[in-house]
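Reading a protein record of the kind used here takes little practice once its layout is understood. The reader may check this reading against the record printed directly beneath this paragraph.
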Amino acid sequence: MKGLNKSTTNTKASKFTFKNTSITAILAIGGVVLATQQAQALSALAVVNGITSNGGVGVSKDILYGDEPLQDLDIYYPKPLAQAMKTESAINKTYPMVVFVHGGSWESGSKEEYAFVGQSLAQAGYVTAVINYRKAPEHVYPDYVKDAAQAIAWSHSNAKSFHADPNRLAVIGHSAGAFNAVAAVANEDFLAPYGMKPKDISAVIGIAGPYSYDFRQYDSATAFGPNATPDKVMPDRQIKGEQPPYLLLTAEKDQVVHITNAVKMTEGLKAAGVTVENGEIKGASHATSIGAMAPPLRWVNDVRAQVLTYLDKTLK
């Protein structure tokens, strides 16, 4: 993003999405090229979803976790579980669970566009909830963080209904969704209304998240409201309660969210005594830091490998 300085993040000029590349061009080079952030999301995300084999996983669509519009989610099931559910066979094991929160500048994006993430994680053995949440400008901070917390709490409370283990539940977010996910867990006040504490979550993974920047300098100010300040809303300054471990990933070639965000979030968590790991996704742009979660695109970068290594370590 032109003009981006090292301590800030432009969270709207790009919608944190993929470059609009034609299908013909994609096929001509023998694969999918996920490019920079200057782009139109839906067509490229549709391409990613279109080439992502469901791998035999199952999905339950449009499950409500709240009463407001966009307070719904989709649940993806690993292949053995999906087959057992379909044939009404006995299910004698529980699976670890992941709640995924998508990005989109707090104004765009949907669970449908990120089906490839749910499929990818389910293929790896995780029951996965891909959530929707209310968007700005109609809904400003903290509404979308409250939605993330409500979806997390709902998933935790209902995990057993989906043959998942609530004691092995991780939360993952990308970009603006990483802000939502981290903010919802780092500050115990968001989970408290549902009788949960941050420590009830087993792990949090933030991918290219804007956790510490002055939004007032950017168009994304509309997502936070006229009276908000960074000190009042940025997750690195709102850490309350005993925390689970965190993995914060950055993209090597990210021109949207600067690494300063992860550095400051790490400093804040460590100052609070929280276990934090950091990782860099080599060669990744902001967009490909999530696009390569699709199994057919794992060659683009190693984000999927880093995420699964951490999940396997903390949940299995």
